[in-house]
Design brief:
By secondary structure, this protein is α+β, with helices and mostly antiparallel strands. 33% of the residues lie in helices and 30% in strands. A hairpin with a 5-residue loop joins β6 and β7. The radius of gyration is 30 Å and the shape is elongated. It starts with 20 loop residues before the first helix and ends with a strand.
């Protein structure tokens, strides 16, 4: 390939612009270091978000079951199974218990309850219960029922 010429016919000096391998390597190393320091914070944020999301889902489920119990005029039973890591909702009748839905407890969340069985009655009452949800970072969220009024309340703790 012939060297580039300018208008006067002289050889023009070509200047290549770009980054050297060392410059790119330094940038990649800096990005790696920043990622290593920020990754634990992102994981903590994700676990806190997962805990908050699960507590809202559980609250919504309990409100739904209370309303469904009133509408259908039947008692609904919720069983918390920590071994299988699930929450089972079923309609309680004289002969059998019809399964409504099973909810999985997310992997990193531990769930403690003063009762393993919660009943939702056709008159709007819920068994009084306190459910404590905890993630590996130590953040706690507690759900409580009001019993007679059928409400579910979320309490945040640090």
């Amino acid at each position: 390939m012939a060297p580039p010429y300018n208008i006067q016919g002289r050889v023009q000096k070509v200047i290549l612009k770009g980054f050297t391998f060392i410059e790119i390597l330094i940038v990649v190393i800096l990005i790696g270091i920043l990622t290593a320091f920020s990754l634990p914070k992102f994981q903590s944020t994700f676990r806190n978000l997962q805990l908050s999301s699960f507590s809202y889902q559980l609250q919504t489920l309990m409100i739904y079951l209370c309303e469904r119990s009133i509408i259908e005029g039947k008692t609904i039973l919720v069983v918390i199974d920590n071994e299988k890591r699930e929450i089972l909702a079923q309609i309680k009748t004289k002969d059998l218990e019809a399964k409504l839905k099973t909810y999985r407890i997310p992997g990193d969340i531990t769930m403690e309850s003063d009762q393993q069985r919660i009943l939702f009655y056709p008159d709007g009452q819920i068994d009084k219960v306190t459910i404590k949800l905890t993630n590996p970072d130590g953040q706690n969220i507690t759900l409580t029922t009001k019993g007679v009024f059928g409400g579910v309340k979320i309490l945040y703790e640090k």
